[in-house]
């Protein structure tokens, strides 16, 4: 396979123009990033969803900038030739510009991301403009915004009526005007996601937003059903069930340890006779 080179935001916009969909996958560590790159994904998102998926939190809110830097840096080591976007965690871009840029700087310098993602609409456009002005690409995120889950009343589908649809279109246009290079649309009705995708010249990347976005993103652990117990999601398609394979493999290991069938003869290393003589005074192999 020819050497892969990371996309850039100019190429992504051209892909939208040419009608070539973008594939994006989350990854949170070195081995998952390495596998994602080998599989040919266009973009890797180090999402603050790692709070739910990897760290065991109920929401993304406890995720810190330190968490994001650590995991982004791990992903970068595994995916040297893929465009990597790191989430700005909860409340790291709603204060002063200086505070926002400190967090961005850490994700770019320490985490080695290519871009950052920020959730929200009109209320974050000034922050988006400031980050873009500092030379950092920003991916927007509207629709269901998990960092605002307590404000929007839970994990609800967005864009179900005319007023909400117009709000989302206005937010997408505002984010484009602020300099965002693309927008994630999460849990947005298909019709509204299609309208947004036509209304802006930057790529839209859907998750639970239907068939007419300019790209799609799913969570690594959802694509592979890598969880226990696994919670079904309507907008997710499972492509492999590694969770069951892992569980079965570990169960087999435990069983073989208990019945002493592991380790077997092929798993051991044998010493020569001189070592045995020094250990057991010539009593022979296997002496007690």
Largest sheet: 8 strands, parallel, barrel
Poorly predicted sequence stretches spanning 5 or more consecutive residues: none
CATH topology of the largest domain: TIM Barrel
Biggest sheet: strand arrangement? 1-2-3-4-5-6-7-8
CATH class of the largest domain: Alpha Beta
Global morphology: elongated
Quickly give the CATH architecture of the largest domain: Alpha-Beta Barrel
Number of strands: 8
Q: What is the helix/strand order? A: HEHEHHEHEHEHHEHEEHHH
Binding site for Mg(2+): 48, 87, 119
Family: Belongs to the PanB family.
Function: Catalyzes the reversible reaction in which hydroxymethyl group from 5,10-methylenetetrahydrofolate is transferred onto alpha-ketoisovalerate to form ketopantoate.
Pfam families: Pantoate_transf
Structural commentary:
- This protein is of the alpha/beta class and 288 residues long.
- The chain folds into 2 domains: 9-240, TIM Barrel (Alpha-Beta Barrel), CATH 3.20.20.60; 246-280, no CATH class.
- It has 12 helices and 8 strands.
- The chain has an 8-stranded parallel barrel with strand order 1-2-3-4-5-6-7-8, surrounded by 7 helices.
- α8 (162-178) packs parallel to α9 (190-199).
- The longest helix has 17 residues, at 162-178.
- The chain is elongated, with a radius of gyration of 24 Å.
């Amino acid at each position: 396979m020819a050497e892969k080179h990371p996309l850039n935001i100019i190429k992504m916009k051209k892909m939208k123009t040419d009608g070539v969909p973008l594939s994006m996958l989350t990854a949170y560590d070195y081995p998952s990033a390495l596998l994602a790159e080998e599989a040919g994904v266009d973009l890797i998102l180090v999402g603050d969803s790692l709070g739910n998926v990897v760290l065991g939190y109920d929401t993304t809110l406890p995720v810190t900038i330190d968490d994001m830097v650590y995991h982004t840096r791990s992903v970068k080591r595994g995916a040297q030739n893929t465009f990597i976007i790191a989430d700005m965690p909860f409340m790291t871009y709603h204060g002063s510009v200086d505070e926002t840029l400190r967090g961005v700087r850490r994700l770019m310098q320490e985490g080695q991301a290519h871009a950052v993602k920020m959730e929200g609409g009109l209320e974050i456009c000034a922050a988006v403009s400031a980050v873009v002005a500092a030379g950092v690409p920003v991916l927007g995120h509207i629709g269901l915004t998990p960092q605002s889950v307590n404000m929007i009343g839970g994990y609800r589908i967005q864009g179900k009526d005319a007023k909400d649809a117009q709000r989302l279109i206005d937010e997408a246009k505002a984010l484009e005007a602020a300099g965002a290079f693309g927008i994630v649309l999460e849990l947005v009705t298909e019709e509204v996601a299609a309208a947004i995708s036509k209304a802006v010249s930057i790529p839209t990347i859907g998750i639970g937003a239907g068939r007419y976005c300019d790209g799609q993103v799913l969570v690594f652990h959802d694509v592979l059903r890598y969880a226990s117990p696994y919670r079904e999601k309507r907008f997710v398609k499972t492509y492999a069930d590694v969770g069951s394979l892992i569980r079965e493999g570990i169960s087999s290991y435990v069983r073989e340890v208990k019945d002493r069938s592991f380790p077997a003869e092929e798993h051991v290393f044998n010493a020569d006779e001189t070592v045995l003589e020094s250990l057991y005074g010539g009593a022979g192999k296997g002496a007690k």
